[in-house]
Design goal:
451 residues, alpha/beta, five-stranded parallel sheet, five-stranded antiparallel sheet, binds adenosine monophosphate, binds zinc ion
């Protein structure tokens, strides 16, 4: 299996350290508002990654975090905690906000038929682990204190600039000096923030005799260390995470424990909508509820995402979504053929699909192989199940076999038509249509499909 590794900026052969436990970590959502469809592209691509890992005969141990505290509005560690801001906006407690948006996120996750991570970890359940990590970093001399918190001294971590190919000199020149001039270096970041006098921060914990809360990056590092241990196999996230969030996660874990943090890093690109950046001011922040209101399903969107590549910036439009929905319908009709005709040998197609997926998750190529094969094949049950394992589009579930009674009616209607008894044939067609089945005459020798 080949995978583009941000660490080396190369497509590399991926082999896990332990095939029974491919250690994976995915940076999850900050649950302060509804996630938009762009946010979900990442989880769809990482689902494809998990499925491909499984198709290679390996098993994953995958952790996803939920950020329910400490994600500051700006990467520069100023601004409000996003969660506190969300709570104020909605007149609710931070805990209510977290609960509500986490549940919404998970409901969409399931509706997209994404494989459940082995463990889902909420940041607020790992405060002790955060503190232990800050202490470990402190022992090694990486930590200094300012009036507003504990900071990581990035000049002490020699390879700090390597992961994101950062130009630290430029960063220094570009830093706004008037802001947080207690920081030693422009790239230093908060490990832990103190709750300041008069600051209304509902989520707070005591550490070093003062009330405070964790910085954003520490939660991922602490959860990884606790749940997956040293050196994981694959870490995933959005490309926006490379220069700050992931760079800082590496500085924290490799600084504290002197072990490579992750062997592979994979990052997804962004989507635009009708050629524009997703933004509130443009009114194009679509949620799944908007797609559903327009008659689309979660799986139609998943289909659209799978037609592209995780490294490419892609443009979303409703006309392209409609095309994706049609393609999914074609696959369902293909799956429905398995109840009507003897299966053909599709082992080569299967091998080609796997080869495409193993080629840096080329789902578009894999789907193109399937399109070619559809025209002159009939799938077995097993092949439909394989497609579901590979893409998770619920083809088997959405195309169940029909009853013997209906099958008899379809045969009876065919007979009536042969005998030119059109009244009977039409009556039977209407009856069959009521069961959600559309009769086809001649097309691919298929007798019927689901409406
Ligand atoms: P946000 O809640 O805006 O911080 O977004 C959470 C994560 O979703 C970001 O860190 C990105 O990796 C990802 N994301 C945001 N916007 C998009 C987009 N337009 N396309 C793909 N991913 C996105
Ligand atoms: Zn993270």
């Amino acid at each position: 299996m080949k995978l583009y590794n941000t660490l080396t900026r190369k497509v590399e052969e991926f082999t896990p350290q332990n095939t029974e436990r491919v250690k994976m970590y995915t940076c999850g959502p900050t649950v302060y508002s509804f996630a938009h469809i762009g946010n979900f592209t990442a989880y769809i691509y990482w689902d494809l990654l998990v499925r491909t890992i499984r198709l290679n005969g390996w098993k994953e141990d995958r952790v996803l975090n939920i950020t329910d505290v400490g994600h500051l509005a700006s990467d520069a560690d100023d601004g409000e905690d996003k969660m506190e801001k969300g709570a104020r906006r909605e007149g609710k407690t931070v805990w209510q906000i977290a609960e509500m948006y986490m549940n919404d996120y998970l409901a969409n996750f399931r509706a997209l038929n994404l494989i459940e991570p082995t463990q889902i970890c909420r940041a607020t359940d790992f405060i002790e682990e955060d503190i232990a990590l800050v202490d470990a970093l402190d022992k090694k001399g990486f930590v200094y204190e300012t009036s507003d918190g504990l900071y990581y001294d990035t000049s002490k971590f020699a390879s700090y600039a390597d992961f994101a190919h950062l130009d630290l000199e430029n960063l220094k020149a570009g830093a706004r000096v008037e802001f947080n001039n207690e920081k030693h270096n422009a790239s230093d970041f908060a490990l832990w923030k103190w709750v300041r006098e008069g600051e209304d921060h509902a989520m707070q914990w005591e550490y070093r005799g003062r009330a405070g809360y964790p910085g954003w990056h520490i939660e991922c590092a602490a959860i990884i260390h606790e749940k997956l241990g040293e050196t994981i196999d694959i870490h995933t996230g959005g490309i926006d995470h490379i220069p700050v969030h992931h760079t800082n996660e590496i500085a924290e874990l490799e600084g504290a424990y002197d072990k490579q943090m992750s062997r592979f890093w994979v990052h997804n690109n962004f989507i635009t909508i009708d050629g524009e950046k997703i933004s509130k001011s443009l009114g194009n922040v679509y949620m799944f509820s908007d797609l559903i209101a327009k008659g689309f399903s979660h799986l139609d969107y998943k289909m659209w995402v799978l037609q592209g590549h995780f490294q490419s910036e892609r443009n979303f439009s409703f006309s392209d979504l409609a095309a994706a929905r049609q393609r999914l319908t074609n696959y369902r009709n293909f799956a429905a053929l398995r109840w009507q005709k003897p299966a053909t040998d599709m082992s080569e197609v299967r091998a080609e699909i796997l080869e495409q997926l193993n080629n840096n998750l080329n789902s578009a190529g894999a789907l193109a192989e399937l399109d070619k094969a559809i025209k002159n094949n009939v799938p077995s049950n097993e092949f439909v199940e394989f497609l579901d394992e590979a893409f998770g589009l619920k083809l088997a579930e959405s195309t169940p076999d029909i009853s013997d009674e209906l099958k008899a009616k379809i045969a009876e209607r065919k007979q009536a038509k042969t005998e030119r008894d059109f009244a009977k044939s039409d009556a039977l067609r209407d009856e069959i249509a009521k069961a959600g089945i559309k009769l086809l005459d001649g097309a691919n020798e298929m007798l019927w499909q689901y409406e």
